[in-house]
Amino acid sequence: ADVVIVNSQKGVMDAMGVGYEALHACNPRVVMVSSQLLGSRGPASDWMGYGPSTRPIGGLSYLWSHPGSDVPAESSSIHPDHLAGRVGAVGALAALVGSERTGVGCHVEVAQVEVVVGLLGDLFAQEDLRPGTVVPIGNTSAVAAPRGPYPCQGEEQYGAVDVQTDAQWSALVEVMGSPEWATEPAYKSAEGRVAARAVIDGGLAAWTAPQEARAVMERCQARGVPAGVMHYPLTHLEDPHLKARGFLRPIEQPMVGSLTLEGPAFHTSRSAGPRIEASPRLGEHTREVCTGLLGIRSDEIDALVAKGVLEEPS
Q1: Torsion over CA: 120, 126, 132, 138 (sign)
Q2: One of 81, 162, 166, 239 is an active-site residue; which one?
Q3: Which of 81, 87, 167, 304 is the least crowded, having the fewest Cβ atoms under 10 Å away?
Q4: What does the alpha-carbon distance between residue 37 and residue 159 come to, in Å, rounded to a whole number?
Q5: Strands 227-229 and 248-253, bridge-based pairing
Q6: Can you give the pTM of this predicted structure?
């Protein structure tokens, strides 16, 4: 192997005899990339969990809260897992370049909490220079308005609108039919809109409320205003874009019934798509593997199944 990727708790690989030092002794060129919540060194390095466990420690959970709320807003996203993985990939590539040049690999470590803190460097600097200015702002932005989810027709249905430029604001005003409240001259600048955020949010919410979320999105997008719908898991199954791309893959899973699986995360012009099909039953390929790959006789397989060493579907 050129690269070994580890996402286990600190010490697990060493306990199994396949830590970096052991692998390096076998293959001096090997690159190991490991990622733990808080790294493999330091007083809290024994902490276990998933990437989101680093968000409170890194300060991100605080910033994701809504102003004045005593309850953290948080999110069900797995962030920063994906970002930490990408940082690890960059580390692996850099280590491989070094290995090719020197003939010696190395151990790359990505502590997820440090990835989170690294994202907030500008905010730490701002708070240092102007104490008390970095506070939770929820879905809003310090430099743009309107921005956030707005109620639409139906129960718990929302459309997101994110005006980033003055031109987008002018387009949104036209989409809304140029209501009197939106034609205030001060609103033509981002500073004016940020200062009047509450008024603008109220007017925009009144416009979106009687409409379906998708209609809001399509009307805004048609004029170049960033907008989207808030999806629920079930609404993904009816999303016309996902359907048109063939991303939704219905299958029949034995002993379960109909399921819809997600399609590939990426496509290339020179590779076939992945196999997306029902999962095999436990032990479904036991005999195929034992006879075809391992050369075990049928009567030996019968004996091993009877002893519980091997398993096949009942």
Answers
A1: negative
A2: 81
A3: 167
A4: 34
A5: unpaired
A6: 0.70
